[in-house]
Amino acid sequence: MGMTITEKILAEHGGLKEVHPGMLINARVDIALGHDVTAPIAIGEFKKAGGHKVFDRNKVVLVADHFTPNKDIQSAQQVKIMRDFAKEHKIGHYYEGGDAGVCHVLLPEQGIALPGDLIIGADSHTCTYGALGAFATGVGSSDLAAAMLTGDLWFKVPETMKIVLHGKLNKWVSGKDLILYVIGQIGVDGATYQAMEFSGETLGELTMADRFTMANMVIEAGAKNGIFVPDETTREYVQSRAEREYTFHESDPDANYASVLEVDVSKIEPQVAFPPLPSNVRGLSKVGSIKIDQVIIGSCTNGRIEDLRLAAQLLKGKQVAPYVRLIIIPTTPDVYRTAMSEGLFDIFLAAKAIISPPTCGPCLGGHMGILADGERAVATTNRNFIGRMGHPGSEVYLANPAVAAASAILGRIAGPDELKGVHKI
Amino acid sequence: MKLKGKIWKFGDHVNTDLIIPARYINSSDPSFLAAHCMEDADPDFMKKMRPGDIIVAGENFGCGSSREHAPIALKAAGISAVVASGFARIFYRSAFNMGLPIFESRTIYGLVNEGDEIEVDGDKGTITISGKEAGPIKIEPIPPFMQELVAAGGLMAYLVKKRAGG
Predict the structure, then answer these.
(1) Does residue B6 fall inside a structural domain?
(2) Would A268 be classed as within a structural domain?
């Protein structure tokens, strides 16, 4: 019996010739990631277990990105715990201040997360790296502590759900819309414990940015990991960045899938997820008139340079609607510098947008753009749970960056086609 | 392991943002987190609940963010167990790793009302509803090593105890 790409990576890291779904294995990890929210607990657990040394100082990655720049005394204390640990253990990949960015954008950009890797992170969106053809999954802080100590962790080999994408993408439709559509089809627990493997002819049209967005949100369907078989697009992205060797795996033709979901992408329009669940999805044409107070363009889901370029294309020569705040968050120092040198900041400032430093910030209701009772936001982020971006009486609508930018200009949820003089290049 | 308590009922897809909102996870202090446990689902929850109480919920409990602050908050609040129709993957592991016993049962949700008292027997693998004729509901028992892990207070404390031969 053949194996899926997920099974192959797990088998290789478990030192096994073959694995099958349901099997419990112990496997070595290539990267163990924590951030300012989850690492302090992991560090506490590490010490509780009598840990004196991390298994490999170059394989532990710590990023201060959630409540940074430090929001208050409590968050400053959390970062201090992480910084002190990083110093003590000479952690090779420690990012803070002007080095730091949103971890799930930063790691691929810096060539730290690579194809064929087994990556665990104490953050549910660790699944993002599956876009590179890696096995990447979110864990709790205790599991991160165990991995930092020993360099390995136990896993249950997941079944794989195959999502086959056919057809050509419509105008303004991107990876965000495809993954929202799929979550809308299968529900927020539709892939619990499973791997979601994306395949089909449409993949050739999808940029790495699209793929990162899609792999990022598989957790919103409960999946353990999301994965793309690497191709030339992947190679082009990683070859100039990789800091070490990497491996391309692919699924065998006779690999076994728990289920197959066929999606004709030519039937999909831009999607909007209504509160309070990412599965609560409607096509843009069925949204109706919903007035908004804030727009966020950023996060590990859609805060890459491609997303900012798209927003700038729509915002050029236009202004944010009265009484609406548009907050743009370049997610890493590289994204920030590129956006600045390409002149995107001039467009954003002229449009009266706010440009934030790299941070997770408002995505999780941390800081830098919190909502009051009754306020509504359109966000390119990943979750629209009750109270996610602030007051429990506020609302978050998830959308792609083009819809977010158009909504900021019109002051209501809207598509780019409603703007005058806009043509997609 | 026998856990008896009054139940608080919550629906499907109780995510970790509801269990402990992100605005409080700039701290990892258990008593601070406990003070805000379930706040956005029920602002008075912490005023109403008593240590030893049990949460009964629907599908996919603990979905969303991987924050281990969620099981920490529940445990520090004094919740003795969570019984749900299903759990999200990361939460399932983290709850045991933090020493919070959790049980899967697809039957119980429809049989109980908020305020009922139940007894969960982790050894035998049963749940009994006080004052109801219906026989005990079968659940998966917690194996001895997992009970030891919970009794020790979580995965790390358990490993230390085992290493010390305790």
Answers:
(1) yes
(2) no
Residue with token string 């360099």 = A151
User: DSSP assignment of A71-102, as one string?
Assistant: -SHHHHHHHHHHHHHHHHTT-SEEE-GGG---
- CB contact under 8 Å between B66 and A192, yes or no, is no
What's the structural domain count of chain A? 2
Q: Report the interhelical angle of A333-341 vs A305-315 (nearest 10°).
A: 30
Q: How many helices (H) and strands (E) does chain B have?
A: 8, 7
Instruction: Identify the CATH number of the domain in which residue A286 sits.
Output: 3.30.499.10
User: Is the per-residue pLDDT at B78 higher than 60?
Assistant: yes
pLDDT tens by residue, A120-147: 999 999 999 999 999 999 999 999 999 9
pLDDT at B133: 74
Q: Is residue A425 part of a domain?
A: no
Closest chain A CA to residue B59: A189
Q: Is there a domain that residue A423 lies in?
A: no
The predicted structure's pLDDT at residue A83: 98
Rounded to 5 degrees, φ, ψ at A41 are -65, -40
Note whether residue A370 is domain-resident. Answer: yes
ipTM of model over 0.90: yes
Q: Quote the CA–CA distance of A29 and A120 in Å, as a whole number.
A: 7
d(CA A131, CA A212): 5
Q: Are residues A103 and A249 in the same domain?
A: yes
Instruction: Dump the DSSP string for A132-160.
Output: GT-EEEE--HHHHHHHHHHSEEEEEPPPE
The chain A residue lying nearest B65, using CA atoms, is A124
Residue with tokens 């949204």: A287
User: Across the interface, do B18 and A385 touch by the CB < 8 Å criterion?
Assistant: yes
In angstroms, the CA A400 to CA A237 distance is 22
In angstroms, the CA A260 to CA A257 distance is 7
CATH code assigned at B53:
3.20.19.10
Q: Residue B76's domain spans which residues?
A: 2-141
Bridge partners (DSSP) listed for residue A398: A273, A379
Contacts with B, A 260-279, CB within 8 Å: 277
Contacts with A, B 13-72, CB within 8 Å: 13, 15, 17-18, 21-23, 25-28, 40-41, 59-60, 63-69, 71-72
Phi/psi for A291 (5° steps) reads -75, 150
Count of domains for chain B: 1
